């Protein structure tokens, strides 16, 4: 049997044809052209259907920026950000509890995720909104008391419902991030005299952020759209306000299109922030350059 | 020889049914450099981690600087210390890990001042000044603003040594500080450790670098199966070990 090096020498003996002056013909990529062509055709057909359909585009244009819609957009943005912030705070707290060696804290964290991930958000929203049916008065006896109907406004119920539900999901995302950090980092932090909490805050969480941020961005986009559920408890977000308008003028599709366009606008504006954050927490990562 | 800086009495630690430390006793005097050698799994790392309380031992006692580690004694009872007190006790020892364990999201300089500023609450500017001096001492003056990922293994380990020193420990623990390094990088780390030893630092070094042990260590301890088999002056243990197990180990390492 010939060894590789003998083969190599043998090959050098053959006179191979000289192809250095031949022209290379570009590949045709027929698949790409076919795909692009059929998609253009499909889009043209859909576009024509909508143009000829029962949509008065003038109404879309007219209602796109009326005050009721704009304030709805504001409320959607505010609720998305606040509910997500609450969700992140709860998520971090419950993720840390889940990883504590205190079995009670661990149990509470598991129970929280089980309860709020196991029931529909819309049901949770309705429960918060109707809390007054269970507890007519809430507060700390002797300190302060209030009628629940006054406290549990659509805003408060939506914030609690969406934020607490989000926390249950975020806690799993955060936990995945915490687990991803090398155990040696905990030890190094302890070795310079840090307590568990301080090492989480200074050493572990900043590194976990790299793993946490991409799924969290996903969850945030989900939250923007999830706020539309709060329309069922009278929270004046953009879908709710669009509905109110079409109850009056019956331009259902036109106003739904207005709301849909606004959701796209909000998502498009907020998405780039994720990239900024990701860059910020990529500090020191090997593939920085 | 005065009061020992570290005193270990009949230390035992099991992982499940496996006895990693089966009754270890030893003293380390202030200023002494002690090298621990022994086969893989003989309990060297576990011993260091007990001293630094990264693992809880089952029985026995460790005193550092006269202070009982991990427990508070009230009459004839021992009460476990709180996490905060354990963290405070750890300040007396610095630890250098096999895999460096630098904080990757911080520059070399930030790694060094993290403990002094966050834990010791020292003034940031003062900590920075001292950190720069330490970096110069380990030969990395120009690497202050480099991230760990941009440093070689030997450089990372030198930063890790400086990070431990920044806490001004009385005792330094090294767990195979050079065994994750490419051969050509071992020397620069050993040189820093040698300089540290000469400056009078008390050091416990787990190592397979017998040359370093011979040159720098005052005493060498050979461990096997969770026990100290033989201990004595470096030359004695490395050149003319009495125990058969030590002889076999040295023969295997030098082969
Ligand atoms: N957390 C743990 N859980 C279970 N077993 C462990 C644990 N830590 C160590 N051990 C076991 O205890 C024994 C001693 O481990 P140790 O790491 O102290 O050995 P070592 O002398 O440092 O070895 P090496 O030279 O490989 O680092 C090993 O058999 C190891 O498998
Ligand atoms: Mg080890």
Compact description:
The complex is a heterodimer of chains A (289) and B (255). Chain A is mainly alpha-helical. Chain A is built from 13 helices and 2 strands.
**Which residues of chain A sit in consecutive blocks of at least 5 with pLDDT less than 50?**
none
The fourth-level CATH homologous superfamily of chain A is MetI-like
Strand composition percent of chain B: 25-35%
Rg of chain A, alpha carbons:
29 Å
Q: List unreliable stretches of 5+ residues of chain B.
A: none
User: Most extensive chain contact?
Assistant: A-B, 24 and 31 residues
Classify the helix fraction of chain B into a percent range: 25-40%
| Counted beta strands of chain B | 12
Count of alpha/pi helices of chain A:
13
Quaternary structure annotation: heterodimer
H/E series of chain B, N to C?
EEEHEEEEHEHHHEHEHEEHH
CATH topology of chain A: MetI-like fold
Question: What labels would you give this structure?
Answer:
heterodimer; A: about 290 residues; two-stranded antiparallel sheet; about 75% helix; B: about 260 residues; six-stranded mixed sheet; 9 helices; 12 strands; about 25% strand; globular; binds adenosine-5'-triphosphate
